[in-house]
C-alpha cells in the first residue's frame, strides 16, 4: 500500500506510521518540528512532533 509521499519532507524514521516506507519521505502535507530542550544547540535537540509510532 503506497501512501502518497511528500517530496518536500524527507525522513528516514521508518517506524513512524506517516513514513512512506518504500522511499524515505513523509506522507503528511505538513509536520510540526519542535524541541525537548530549553536551549537547543544541536541537531539532536530537535524532534518531529508529528511522529506517531507504527504498531
Ligand atoms: S511525521 Fe515526522 S517522523 Fe513521521 S514520517 Fe513524517 S517527518 Fe518522519
Report on the architecture of this protein:
This protein is an all-beta fold and 55 residues long. It has one domain. The protein has no helices and 4 strands. The protein has strands spanning 6-10, 25-26, 33-35, 46-48. The strands form 2 sheets. Strands 1-2 form a two-stranded antiparallel sheet. The model has no long low-confidence stretch (mean pLDDT 95). The structure holds iron/sulfur cluster. Iron/sulfur cluster (SF4) binds next to loops.
Could you write a compact summary of the structure shown?
The protein has one domain. Helix content is 0%, strand content 24%.
Keywords:
binds iron/sulfur cluster; single chain; mainly beta; 55 residues
Q: Secondary-structure map with pairings?
A:
Blueprint lengths: L5 E5 L14 E2 L6 E3 L10 E3 L7
Antiparallel strand pairs: 1-2, 3-4
Strand order of the largest sheet: 1-2
Largest sheet data: 2 strands, antiparallel
Low-pLDDT parts are: none
Helix content: under 10%
Estimate the global geometry from the Cα principal axes. Answer: elongated
What portion of the residues fall into strands of 2 or more residues? 15-25%
SS element count, helices: 0
- Total strands: the figure is 4
Count of discrete domains: 1
Amino acid at each position: 500500500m503506497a501512501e502518497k509521499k511528500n517530496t518536500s519532507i524527507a525522513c528516514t524514521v521508518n517506524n513512524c506510521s506517516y513514513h512512506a516506507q518504500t522511499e524515505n519521505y513523509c506522507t503528511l502535507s505538513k509536520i510540526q518540528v519542535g524541541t525537548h530542550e530549553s536551549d537547543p544547540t544541536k541537531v539532536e535537540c530537535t524532534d518531529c512532533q508529528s511522529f506517531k509510532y507504527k504498531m
